[in-house]
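Much of the work behind modern protein science is quiet bookkeeping, done one molecule at a time. The protein below has been through that process, and both of its lines are reproduced in full.
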Amino acid sequence: MSELARSGFVVQVLSTSVAAAMAGKLLADGGAQVLRVEPVGGSDLSRRPPLTADGTSAWFRHLCRNTTVVTEGDAVPA
């Protein structure tokens, strides 16, 4: 199977919960384009320990893999 099951879907994640981040990750891993909208200054998830060497949350890096992270107020091209 060359095409992923969720190809063509566009999903916006507007929650800052771990459950929503996991759902977005699963959809992105399945081929959907996922836009994660973060509050200005980042969500609690982006600061949750353990932190990597560059100060980013390991949880955030894992759960937001394959997603596009934008900040509230950023212009998103249509």
